[in-house]
Design goal:
- With about 900 residues, the protein is mainly beta.
- The chain is about 10% helix and about 40% strand.
- Among the domains are: about 180 residues, Jelly Rolls (Sandwich), CATH 2.60.120; about 100 residues, Immunoglobulins (Immunoglobulin-like, Sandwich); about 100 residues, Distorted Sandwich (Beta-galactosidase, Chain A, domain 5); about 150 residues, no CATH class.
- The strands form 16 sheets. Strands 51-52-53-54-65-61-60-57-58 form a nine-stranded antiparallel sheet, with helices on one face. Strands 2, 3, 5, 8, 9, 10 and 12 form a seven-stranded antiparallel sheet that branches.
- A hairpin with a 2-residue loop joins strand 51 and strand 52.
- The radius of gyration is 33 Å and the shape is elongated.
- It is an enzyme of class 3 (hydrolase).
Length: about 900
């Protein structure tokens, strides 16, 4: 099939002004998954194979309905060995006469053979994630059509490439998945530049040239086009010319202030500019002090990082700059400052975005657990460096992953990187770094606090479903922050790897529990852990503060930035009187940002209005230098007892009546009929004028003994009291019901957990899941919590409609409905037939809504997402959740079981759960 590309070339030139001295670029493909070009295509096996058709380029052919899907762990030897044959006709602009012309592939999976007009362009390229090119000057025709033929083999003939790239814990794809273009250069040209721009203003560049020229001119300009110093020149003596210059007080690059300059290199011959090359650079210095830490621009760093695959559900490894911006923006929103490329070099536009938005990068030569052989690895290393080396965002190199380290390649990084950035072996003690993955928290105590290497796990808290990430991060980060040898670490991983199955009606497939490891869903859906990380990693740390009567508006804060003074941030506050759907009354204002230098503590003063205690809650928002929210902290002013005093109605015009049978107490008040079991004391039925409310069979103690005994009744004023008798040996747990003339019901349970260590403690009731429509509650939300993931929520009134979502599974509907919710004041249960309300006057009560689906764990069953019996629970303590690689108790103190010590069963030390129930028809 023949395509005319000259109009596209003209369009490109409109945005890239045609200058004789610039490298000219002509795309044969599109530029990403949102911009593709159809090529002729033939797939040898699998879906839609055996016939010529067309395919968009760039793309992975599985996502276009060709070939076979396979995950890296797939053991079937016949999977993933298909080949794709591509054809494309193109024409060369007449202005390219006498130019050197290259064809450039930014990434092709896996072995790639290229022909131009029937002739080989060069040896087959082996390796998927690297930019490679061929000089096709002598193969093309300047007039008429040229035929490009490409054969891509998904499985490499080089077994070391398969070991490094394909036998891995990620999806394996095929195809030309990154852009393809032609570049035209003059016969004398700048081939490559290596740049090192130090924080002290010293600028060094190695300029590689081809052909004879006289000198090279260099000019630096900032983002606004303002020149940094004067243009300077260096004579050319050979094909490698080193340039040295010192600039006064350049604006430095960091993750907080990503100041970029454009370095323009102009090649001069006989007084004329014959070729020009531009690079975005940043002045910054990376230094490693062994047995101490990593310093950027002289400041010791704590890296708050995540691992990131180049991935999108509908296009596989084919992404776009739009996706790169979205990914980096979400990482920055979580207050991250670093990202590790897992487990291969990314698209160039991702590094561009890290440069411009500010994110430290660990760039990685592929090698999941296997390694490239030395000749292949050397070639691919050279391609990676030539493409990536000048990005200021890159502060580390990684040679493979988890044993995928070909040590014969190590010297290349030190020998060839002008910036001499540190080299890491992820999951090894290497080069002064301890980067071991997924160590238990107690291992960290024994080794991290008493070791000598710089501690920087390149993977920790391995997410899966709802486990990991936020669960445990507070404990780990507290240890990391307070350890002088810690340089932070990198979570695994950023987004769920769920791929669109074109062979299964477009369903999203995570390959079971292999792929749902992300903090966000495949289309960037935010899980609860997203907000936990956002709070824990906020560079503004706000100490816990109670809103007591004597509170004077002072918050003690810590500046956890590396380069930003808190007076460069913005602080806003709001007082709210809460109601569902909107704030009935609020007052808001701004606080003067305090002068607190990085790593120092100080006080933030809020000038509160005199009536501040008449509001329900106080909210404090910190924004960064660019006006982006760091986090909003919420502080309840009114306590649960204050709400209970307003909500619970005790008096009424009717009287409380009691009827007894051999087995029950039957109580009526104000149209409410209640039935209690005479021996156990449990609520058996609640009924109003509309009928029975299916809430019953409680309270049943969780990890406690229902030894309520010897119930008696008494009249206390207008109220009826049904209570058990305390006995230190036989009935040390007590239950008391109070029925008010209004029809409201009070329950008070004083109880002792049955064991020294408990997973959770609380009270259970029965309520059919098929009955619930939604809940409205006052407390922390809208996301659920775990014992070891308490942060990231906001205090307020929340309405949650029922859903059966499971984290990391279709339909990625968040927030989930089922689970634990913290700091409940009250909750209204909205059923299909009846509603009812539960209120507490106790603090720190957890509401448990049903039992979420348990997703398939690994064979080790590490996540252990444990829930009580029954359907609805009111808890004094809830369970933790583990990760893919760690059980809950190994993620830190917050993941451990509860400890309750009271062998004497003294009533004054019992846990106290008090609830009020409104079963009326209101």
């Amino acid at each position: 099939m023949k395509y005319s590309i000259l109009p596209f070339f003209c369009l490109v030139m409109m945005f890239f002004p045609l200058r004789a001295q610039q490298t000219e670029k002509l795309y044969l493909s599109g530029t990403g998954n949102d911009d593709t070009v159809k090529w002729d295509f033939f797939c040898t096996e699998g879906m839609n194979s055996g016939k010529w058709t067309t395919i968009p380029v760039p793309s992975n052919w599985e996502l276009q309905g060709f070939g076979k899907y396979n995950y890296g762990f797939n053991k079937e030897t016949n999977k993933g060995k298909e080949q794709g044959l591509y054809k494309y006709n193109f024409q060369i602009p007449t202005a390219w006469k006498d130019k050197k012309i290259n064809i450039v592939f930014e990434g092709s999976m896996t072995d790639t053979e290229v022909k131009i007009n029937g002739k080989s362009a060069g040896e087959t390229h082996k390796g998927s994630f690297y930019v490679f090119k061929y000089d096709i000057t002598n193969l093309i025709k300047l007039e008429g059509d040229n035929l490009l033929e490409v054969k891509v083999s998904k499985h490499s003939v080089n077994q070391s490439v398969n070991e490094a790239e394909r036998k891995a814990d990620f999806w394996i794809f095929g195809g030309i998945f990154r852009p393809v273009y032609l570049e035209a250069l003059p016969q004398t040209y700048i081939d490559r530049v290596q740049i090192d721009a130090k924080a002290n203003g010293v600028f060094t560049a190695n300029v590689f040239t081809s052909g004879l020229a006289d000198k090279i001119n260099i000019q630096l300009t900032n983002a606004k086009g303002k020149k940094l110093g004067n243009e300077f020149s260096t004579k050319i003596a050979s094909n490698l010319t080193q340039v040295n210059q010192e600039f006064k007080s350049p604006a430095l690059w960091s993750s907080e202030f990503p100041n970029l300059y454009t370095a323009t290199f102009t090649l001069i011959k006989n007084g004329k500019a014959i070729h020009q090359l531009t690079k975005k650079i940043g002045f910054r210095t990376v230094e490693v002090e062994k047995r101490d830490g990593v310093y950027v621009n002289g400041v010791k760093m704590k890296f708050k990082g995540v691992n990131r695959h180049s991935f999108y559900p509908s296009s596989g490894r084919t992404t776009s700059k739009r996706i790169s911006i979205a990914d980096v923006s979400l990482m920055k929103e979580m207050n991250m400052n670093a990202v590790r490329m897992s487990h291969y070099p990314p698209d160039g536009h991702f590094l561009d975005v890290c440069d411009s938005l500010g994110l430290f990068v660990m760039d990685e030569l592929a090698g999941w657990h296997g390694t490239y052989d030395t000749p292949t690895g050397t070639k691919l290393y050279q391609e990676m460096m030539a493409n990536d080396e000048n990005h200021p965002s890159i502060v580390f190199w990684a040679n493979g992953n988890e044993g995928g380290h070909n040590r014969e390649l190590d010297h290349l990084f030190a020998d060839n990187d002008l910036q001499k950035r540190p080299l890491i072996h992820p999951w090894e003690v290497f080069n002064g770094f301890e980067t071991t993955h997924y160590r238990e928290f107690n291992y960290g105590i024994g080794n991290y606090d008493h070791g000598h290497n710089i501690l920087m796990p390149t993977e920790f808290l391995h997410g899966m479903w709802d486990g990991g990430h936020g669960a445990g991060i507070e404990d780990y980060w507290n240890a990391m922050w307070n350890n002088p040898l810690s340089a932070g670490g990198f979570l695994w991983d950023f987004a769920d790897q769920a791929v669109v199955r074109t062979d299964k009606n477009g369903e999203l497939d995570t390959d079971g529990n292999h792929g749902p490891d992300g903090i966000v869903g495949p289309y960037h859906e935010k899980e609860g852990s997203f907000y936990t990380i956002k709070e824990v990693w906020s560079p503004v740390f706000v100490e816990k503060q109670e809103m007591t009567a004597g509170f004077d508006g002072s918050f003690f804060v810590e500046n956890r930035y590396a380069f930003t003074n808190l007076n460069q941030c913005t602080f806003e506050w709001k007082l709210k009187k809460l109601q569902l759907g909107a704030d009935a009354v609020f007052k808001a204002g701004k606080a003067d940002a305090p002068n607190i230098k990085p790593l120092e503590k100080g006080k933030l003063q809020i000038n509160l209005p005199t009536d501040w205690r008449t509001f329900d809650a106080f909210y404090l928002t910190a924004k960064d230098f660019y006006g982006k929210e760091l986090f909003t902290w919420s502080f309840p002013i009114a306590l649960p007892k204050d709400d209970a005093d307003k909500i619970v109605v005790k008096t009424g015009s009717s009287k409380v009546s009691l009827k007894e049978s051999a087995t029950t107490y039957q109580v009526s008040a104000n149209g409410i009929d209640l039935t209690f079991h005479k021996t156990t004391g449990l609520l058996q039925q609640a009924k109003n004028a509309k009928g029975v409310i299916p809430f019953s069979n409680g309270p049943v103690l969780q990890e406690g003994v229902n030894n309520f005994k010897n119930f008696t009744t008494k009249v206390d004023g207008d109220n009826l009291v049904i209570s058990s008798k305390f006995d230190k040996k036989e009935s040390y747990n007590t239950l008391e019901w109070t029925i008010y003339p209004s029809g409201w019901l009070k329950m008070q349970v004083k109880y002792f957990p049955s064991a020294y260590f408990t997973t959770f403690v609380g009270l259970n009731f029965s309520y059919p899941e098929t009955e619930i429509k939604s809940v409205v509650y006052k407390g922390n939300g809208p996301y659920r919590v775990w014992k070891n993931r308490m942060k990231g929520t906001e205090f307020g009134i929340w309405k949650k409609d029922y859903n059966d979502s499971a984290t990391g599974e279709p339909s990625w509907q968040y927030p989930e409905f089922k689970g634990y919710y913290s700091n409940m004041y009250w909750c209204e249960f909205i059923g299909k037939t009846q509603n009812f309300k539960v209120v507490t006057d106790r603090e720190d009560i957890f509401l448990r809504l049903f039992t979420p689906k348990k997703s398939k764990d690994t064979e080790y069953d590490n996540m252990s997402p444990t829930f009580p019996i029954g359907d609805i629970s009111f808890m004094n303590g809830i369970s933790a959740i583990g990760t893919k690689t760690q059980k809950p108790e190994t993620t830190g103190p917050m993941g451990m079981k509860h400890v309750f010590y009271d062998f004497d069963k003294e009533p004054s030390r019992a846990l106290d759960m008090t609830l009020y129930f409104d079963f009326s028809t209101k």
